[in-house]
Write a structure and sequence with these properties.
By secondary structure, the protein is α+β, with helices and mostly antiparallel strands. It has two domains: 74 residues, Orthogonal Bundle (Multidrug-efflux Transporter Regulator, Chain: A, Domain 2); 96 residues, Orthogonal Bundle (Multidrug-efflux Transporter Regulator, Chain: A, Domain 2). 48% of the residues lie in helices and 14% in strands. The chain is built from seven helices and eight strands; from the N terminus they run βββααβααββααββα. Strands 5-7-8-6 form a four-stranded mixed beta sheet. Strands 1-2 form a two-stranded antiparallel ribbon. A two-stranded antiparallel ribbon has the order 3-4. Helix 5 packs across helix 6. It starts with 15 loop residues before the first strand and ends with a helix. 12% of the residues are buried.
C-alpha cells in the first residue's frame, strides 16, 4: 500500500511522523525511514541500481510514500537485503537473467548451465584459453562466436567457462586441420 506523506524536519520539530491511511494511523520515527541514498548504502549498491531494482524487481519493497522522492521503512530494506543474500547463496542472483542475456550476445549461443558434478579445477576462462591456444582474448571471443567447432561455454557467476579437455581437443583438431592443409599445399607444390 502506498501512502502520500509529506514532511520536512525543522530544528526543534518532532522526529516522529504520523502516517495516515484510510484504514489506520501510525507513527514512525524519522530514523526508521530511508531514502534512495540510504537504501543504496544499506544494500551496498549504487543509487542507479536501487532505482532500477525499485522499478524492475517485484521483490523490492514498496515505498511508504508515493512521491518523487520515495522513502522506505529501514526494516523493509534490511529484510530485502537478507532475501537477496539468501538468493545469491542459492545461486539465483537477481542479475542472472541480465548476465545470461549478455553471455548469449557475447558468444552468439546460450551457454550451458553448469552441473554441480563438474570439477571446477578443470574449467578454464577466456584468459586461460588465450594462453593455451596462443591467441589474444579478443581472438578467443571471436572464435567462440564464429567457429561452430569451438566448444560451447558454461556459465557460472557472470563468467564463461570451458572444460580444459574440450579446449585441448579443439586445439588438436585445429592442429590436424592445419597439418592437413599444409600437406595439401605441399602436394600441390610438388606436382607443379
Amino acid at each position: 500500500m502506498k501512502i502520500n506523506v509529506g514532511f520536512r524536519l525543522e530544528p526543534g520539530q518532532s522526529r516522529e511522523i504520523t502516517v495516515t491511511t484510510a484504514k489506520s494511523a501510525s507513527t514512525i520515527s524519522a530514523r526508521d525511514l530511508v531514502n534512495y541514498e540510504e537504501a543504496a548504502e544499506i544494500l551496498g549498491l549504487s543509487l542507479q541500481t536501487v532505482r532500477i531494482y525499485k522499478i524492475k524487481d517485484p521483490d523490492f519493497p514498496d515505498p511508504i510514500t508515493d512521491t518523487r522522492s520515495p522513502v522506505w521503512r529501514r526494516a523493509d530494506i534490511v529484510a530485502y537485503k537478507e532475501r537477496r543474500a539468501i538468493k545469491r547463496k542459492r545461486g539465483r542472483s537477481l542479475s542472472d537473467a541480465a548476465a545470461a542475456k549478455r553471455a548469449r550476445s557475447e558468444s552468439g549461443r546460450k551457454p550451458k548451465p553448469v552441473a554441480s558434478e563438474i570439477d571446477f579445477s578443470q574449467l578454464v576462462t577466456v584468459e586461460d584459453i588465450a594462453e593455451i591456444l596462443g591467441f589474444t582474448t579478443q581472438t578467443v571471443r571471436k572464435y567462440s562466436r564464429a567457429d561452430p567447432e569451438f566448444p560451447e561455454p558454461f556459465y557460472v557467476k557472470k563468467t564463461h567457462w570451458w572444460r580444459r579437455e574440450d579446449i585441448l581437443a579443439y586445439q588438436e583438431s585445429r592442429a590436424a586441420e592445419a597439418a592437413s592443409a599444409a600437406q595439401v599445399r605441399g602436394d600441390a607444390d610438388a606436382s607443379a
